[in-house]
Design brief:
- By secondary structure, the protein is an alpha/beta fold.
- The chain has helices at residues 12-22, 28-46, 83-93, 140-151, 166-175, 203-208; strands spanning 6-8, 52-58, 63-69, 73-80, 98-106, 113-119, 127-132, 135-136, 156-160, 163-164, 180-183, 185-186, 189-190, 196-197.
- The strands form 4 sheets. Strands 1-11-9-7-4-5-6 form a 7-stranded mixed β-sheet, sandwiched between helices.
- The longest helix is centred in the first third of the chain and has 19 residues, at 28-46.
- It is globular.
- It binds uracil.
- Residues 82, 135, 137, 194-196, 199, 202-204 line the site of uracil (URA).
- Residues 82, 135, 137, 194-196, 199, 202-204 line the site of uracil.
Length: 211
């Protein structure tokens, strides 16, 4: 199912952990721990094409030209609040990344995003930006967040989520065809209140124990 603009991470560890996360009855702490672990694996995948250069180093035995990351620095942007669950695991792998936050809540009647917070790193135009939000449902919040990032100068953006609905993928690709989506699963559909089916329920409530 993967294509250049949609990558589905089918690694067995990702798929196994995702199944555990979906299960009803999983405790908040288990859910959060699994999310952290799966985020690290997804971060590994989304950074797979980062450019490398080399630098001269001395090992205890000899000198060598060794690979190091090159190119644009990274910025992570979390869509509050559920994005923060993905953020922690991604930061485990990329601790030097700058971090921004977009606060959007979903109007439950219109399903449209309403902005209540925005704090972004400087010089987004000089960074590769990874937007994190576990659930790509209608795609409205993702598209709105990426609108804001582009207004702030970002030109190289990818979107990292745990689950995506086909409706959300289509909406995001229509609004931002240049943005690659990386996900652990494309689920069946959205229900009539905008939840992903089969999904895992409300990701924010499950990770913060607020259900
Ligand atoms: N947000 C969630 O937390 N879950 C969904 O299924 C859809 C949006």
């Amino acid at each position: 199912m993967s294509s250049p603009d949609l990558v589905v991470v089918d690694h067995p560890l990702v798929q196994h952990k995702l199944t555990l996360m979906r299960e009803q009855g999983r405790s908040t702490s288990e859910f959060r721990q699994l999310l952290r672990e799966i985020s690290q694996l997804l971060a590994y995948e989304i950074t797979r094409d980062l450019p490398l250069t080399t630098k001269s180093i001395e090992t205890p035995l000899t000198s060598m030209e060794a690979p190091v990351l090159d190119g644009k620095k990274l910025a992570l942007v979390s869509i509050l609040r559920a994005g923060n669950g993905l953020l922690d695991g991604v930061l485990d792998l990329i601790p030097a990344a700058r971090v921004g936050f977009v606060g959007l809540y979903r109007d439950e009647e219109t399903l449209q995003p309403v902005q209540y917070y925005l704090k972004l790193p400087h010089e987004l135009d000089r960074r590769r930006v990874i937007v994190v939000d576990p659930m790509l449902a209608t795609g409205n919040s993702a598209a709105a967040a990426i609108d804001l990032l582009k207004e702030a100068g970002a030109t190289e953006i990818s979107f990292l989520c745990l689950l995506a609905a086909p409706e959300g993928i289509e909406r995001l690709h229509q609004a931002h065809p240049d943005v690659q989506i990386v996900t652990a699963s494309v689920d069946s559909h959205l229900n009539d209140v905008g939840y992903i089916v089969p999904g895992l329920g409300d990701a924010g409530d499950r990770m913060f124990g607020t259900a």
